[in-house]
Amino acid sequence: MHLSSFAAFWLLLATVVRAISWTATPFNPSSIPLAVRTPYLSAWLPQGSGAALNDAWATFWTGMIVGWAGFVKVDGAAYVFMGAPSVPATFSKATQKSSHFTSTQSIFVLSAGPVDLTVTFLSPVEPDDLVKQSIPFAYMAVSAASTDGLSHSVQVYSDISAEWVSGDNSLNVKWNSTTTGSILTHQVQLADPAVLTEINDHTQYGSAFYSTPNIEGATFQTGADVAVRAQFINNGKLANTLDTNFRAISNNWPVFGLAHDLGTITSATTPVVFSVGHIRDPALTYIIAGGGTQNRNLYFLSKFPTSAAVVSSFLGDFTAALSRAKTFDGQVQTDASKISADYASVVALSIRQAFAATELTLSKTSTGAFNMSDIILFMKEISSDGNVNTVDVIFPAWPIFLYTNPALGKYLLEGLFRYQATGLYPNKWSVHDLGSSYPKALGHNDGADEAMPVEESGNMLIMALSYAQKTGDHSHLTRYAGLLDQWTQFLIADSLIPANQISTDDFAGSLANQTNLAIKGIVGIGAMSKIAAILGDTAQSANYSSIATSYVTQWQKFSASTTGAHLTLSYGDSSSWGLSYNLFGDKLLKLNLFPASIYSEQTAWYQTHANAFGVPLDTRHTYTKTDWQLFTAAIATNTTTRDIFISAVKKWASDGQNNGPFGDLYDTVSGAIAVGFRARPVVGGHLALLVL
Ligand SMILES: *[C@@H]1O[C@H](CO)[C@@H](O)[C@H](O)[C@H]1NC(C)=O
Ligand SMILES: *[C@@H]1O[C@H](CO)[C@@H](O)[C@H](O)[C@H]1NC(C)=O
Ligand SMILES: *[C@@H]1O[C@H](CO)[C@@H](O)[C@H](O)[C@H]1NC(C)=O
Ligand SMILES: *[C@@H]1O[C@H](CO)[C@@H](O)[C@H](O)[C@H]1NC(C)=O
Ligand SMILES: *[C@@H]1O[C@H](CO)[C@@H](O)[C@H](O)[C@H]1NC(C)=O
């Protein structure tokens, strides 16, 4: 039932482009984040060209439904405000008046008769608090206000289904509930969990939690979707009964309901708060020296050893969390608005998505205690292939970590450095990723990872120096100096004339002598010159500096088009061109290896080569990348050109042509998504203009 009504809805939407009837600020994105915190806590409202909170089910980033319903009763009349449930009982649809998103919140106002409901979805972003950042939970807060000056009786209901615990709805689940004490909590998990595995990108172990404060007027119920929802619609409260007939997710759809009686209200009420989350332990397995593996546990477990403790703390923290979120949102808005309003809106939509691809972990010592000095941040390469800590996905995302808390960047690099320092990885260049399939960071001891030798070696050098410059912390440079030099030797041999290989834009295929890839390698050599200086080796620093400078001179001859108007895509192919976004590293690290004329020439070229939805990535295709366009915007020498890139990304993000989370690869002519990339952390690179 869920799936067929969902499919029918989208078929309808595909043929009828609807004008939205509510105010959408700052714009109407393809999909709005609802509960977006980790690779597995990822619930979105698929909007397409316009779907209200109660027009569609929330979906996982893949598009699979994660059942999440909401009803309100006003003076005895029931209205659905969230999801697309069908229930054999009488209710109407609340009317959406507005949708609004910030960096951490999505806020909807819907009118239900004479009452307006404000539904706030808060997915906290807590870059400076590792405990809070690692808690895999999000809030939904609901408040009601009379719109006619009269008093009204209001009750609020919400549930989640068991779709939050698996990517296969035919699997059996079991559940239980905490019904006494200060918090009501439903917990649901697979009957036969499979640790460290996924189906359809959903995790297959751990538990989902749906919770609310157990205040006066709170009720609960578990049972079949139609039965629990009808109970609320007919009675305005739940039956405080528990279904113990454990069964498959899709077998009479068990749902986990919670309700509050707000009593008689007039002016806006204090919100009732619900929390949704998913905890699994261990979070990942990680390869260690000698070839063994180590379990990694979510950081917050060091502070909250039980799920009851974390749920209680998280719910109790709502008011403070909202206040911190508003401060964070305000800071981002202030900083990004200095560029433009379009830019601020693109950045706001990017932040939850980028953070939600990451998980902060600790290991345990031999005595079972948490090792608080062993922090690794893991990142899932969502939607493209699920790799763990892909270097050329961390690199485009890097600006968001530099901007919010560079230490998070250090924790991302730590896993890659430590693995390669074991000597288990055989290649002389940097590894591409820590494991083919999240959450297994098992390395690539056969050296057969996706080979991007120049790309990844340059990326590691650039990010390591960037972190050190930003923080003054030289510990990675000191500890991993050997690896950094090894990668530099490779770049010295292979980056001026890059062999036939793929770059980060692997979907475009391999090519020899890529102009932009050579920039990456040369900037990497320049970075090592600075690193050597920091480490006190002035002779080595001078040598690498002169190599980088001489490479730039030679590269200028190889890479110029015969007209001199632009750089080529690859040496000697005069009519070819592309976005030379790797110059961003030269500016970020303040190397100034490349002459100003290169920047101004490229800036002028892009200005006259934009299609309706932006500037193509290169002459092989009409598609482009959002992250590389904004890296290029950050180094543009003309604000007209800069704003062409920014407006193009905003136009794509708001064009209503798809209904998935923010995609980073799309067609510049049609504005349609290309390849299907969505929900990827590379949108963290949209903050590139905030870090130069
Ligand atoms: C619910 O089940 C889980 C998993 O079996 C268990 O750890 C937890 O203690 C149970 N909670 C309650 C309230 O019974
Ligand atoms: C804690 O982790 C660090 C970093 O991996 C390691 O050097 C140290 O030996 C660990 N401490 C213990 C007690 O295991
Ligand atoms: C790469 O460029 C160099 C310098 O122009 C040239 O000598 C070499 O033949 C090119 N390689 C390929 C495969 O085109
Ligand atoms: C500079 O570095 C290159 C590459 O490692 C090396 O071959 C060369 O001998 C070095 N030159 C000096 C003067 O150290
Ligand atoms: C930027 O480009 C615009 C449009 O071509 C042009 O009018 C303007 O003079 C340029 N500004 C600078 C500072 O070069």
From TrEMBL:
Keyword terms of this UniProt record: Signal
Domain of life: Eukaryota
GO biological process per UniProt: carbohydrate metabolic process
Pfam families referenced in this protein's UniProt entry, alphabetically: DUF4964, DUF5127, GtaA_6_Hairpin
Record InterPro entries: 6-hairpin_glycosidase_sf, DUF4964, Glutaminase_GtaA, GtaA_central, GtaA_N
Residue ranges annotated for the Glutaminase A N-terminal domain, each copy included: 104-335
Signal peptide as annotated in the record: 1-19
Occurrences of domain Glutaminase A central (ranges): 340-690
All residue ranges annotated as the DUF4964 domain in the record: 31-87
PANTHER family the UniProt entry points to: GLUTAMINASE A, GLUTAMINASE A-RELATED
Name of the protein in its database record: DUF1793-domain-containing protein
